């Protein structure tokens, strides 16, 4: 190690001028490594890629976004502008758009999110069915987990006793092998269907994780709908009904149900109104911002 002489201070020895004289390549090497570390376009990278890429969204505990970020409020921007071009290259017009390069950022105000579930269907042949082990091999599948809901179709014959247009649930075995179960509970408990044959011709397994995907709409004109990213869905109850009594001699106005008290004839009456002004889970109010 070289120490400063009596005539030199430490600050002088670490000054850019001194370093450039004594180690002419050091600054260039440092700048090169700094550029490599920051990555292309001045964005911070680690060994796996961008630390926070354009389009990344986070919860934010303030009403205003910070520098380099935009509020997820559905506002329109011009993707041709250098301030927004990186973000536009990632999200395009998924959340709405106008002429040329005009695009909208996501509008997360008052909305819960739902995980993207558009997964391609997979074809399989009889030789992919190990019916003695009650398993089917789905090549390059993207189901990845036990309890995943699917439906089957076929150009010929499904492995018996499977039938088309019926919801089944997968139990993961190993790699791309799955058992087929009649309920999600059975899938988790290891109760699977006894396959009695391999079927014939080409059959197909279709993901069925979002049964009402066709009700998803464009939140803003020019955006995506259906299964695609950025689509929007109104709130809704799953179809159901409430049973009531029709017994003039029995009344039970308990907290969980109401029987019908008859005054005259056999008139039916509805149950009382309960609840608030919207359907919702427990929630916490937060803001969302998106990296530009």
Report the sheet with the most strands, covering strand number, pairing sense and barrel closure.
Answer: 7 strands, antiparallel
- First-to-last CA distance: 45 Å
* Strand-residue proportion: 15-25%
Radius of gyration: 31 Å
Overall geometry: extended
Count helical runs.
Answer: 5
Q: Which class do the helix and strand fractions yield?
A: alpha+beta
Model regions low in confidence, pLDDT < 50 over at least 5 residues: 259-264
Biggest sheet: strand arrangement: 7-13-10-11-12-9-8
Mean pLDDT over the full residue set = 84
What does this structure look like?
The protein has 292 residues and is α+β, with helices and mostly antiparallel strands. It starts with 9 loop residues before the first helix and ends with a strand. About 2% of the residues have low confidence. The protein has five helices and 14 strands. Among the domains are: 32 residues, no CATH class; 86 residues. The chain is extended. 13% of the residues lie in helices and 18% in strands. β11 and β12 form a beta hairpin. The strands form four sheets. It has a seven-stranded antiparallel sheet with strand order 7-13-10-11-12-9-8. Strands 3-14-4 form a three-stranded antiparallel sheet, with no helix packed on it.
């Amino acid at each position: 190690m070289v120490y400063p002489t009596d005539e030199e201070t430490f600050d002088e020895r670490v000054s850019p001028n001194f370093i450039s004289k004594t180690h002419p390549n050091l600054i260039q090497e440092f700048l090169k490594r700094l550029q490599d570390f920051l990555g292309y376009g001045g964005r911070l990278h680690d060994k796996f890629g961008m630390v926070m890429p354009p389009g990344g969204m986070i919860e934010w505990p303030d009403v205003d976004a910070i520098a380099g970020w935009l509020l997820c409020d559905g506002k329109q921007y011009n993707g041709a502008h250098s301030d927004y071009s990186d973000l536009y290259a990632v999200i395009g017009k998924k959340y709405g758009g106008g002429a040329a390069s005009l695009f909208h950022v996501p509008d997360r105000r008052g909305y819960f999110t739902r995980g993207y579930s558009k997964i391609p269907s997979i074809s399989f042949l009889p030789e992919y069915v190990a019916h003695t082990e009650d398993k089917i091999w789905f090549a390059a599948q993207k189901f990845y987990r036990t309890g995943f809901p699917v439906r089957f179709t076929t150009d010929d014959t499904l492995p018996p006793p499977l039938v088309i247009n019926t919801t089944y649930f997968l139990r993961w075995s190993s790699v791309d092998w799955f058992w087929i179960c009649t309920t999600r509970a059975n899938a988790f408990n290891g109760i699977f269907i006894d396959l009695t044959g391999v079927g014939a011709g080409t059959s197909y397994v279709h993901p069925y994780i979002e049964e009402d995907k066709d009700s998803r709409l464009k939140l803003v004109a020019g955006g995506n709908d259906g299964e695609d990213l950025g689509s929007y869905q109104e709130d809704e109850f799953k179809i159901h009904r409430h049973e009531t009594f029709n017994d003039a001699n029995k009344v039970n106005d308990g907290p969980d149900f109401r029987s019908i008290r008859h005054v005259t004839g056999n008139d039916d009456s509805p149950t009382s109104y309960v609840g608030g002004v919207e359907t919702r889970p427990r929630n916490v109010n937060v803001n969302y911002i998106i990296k530009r």
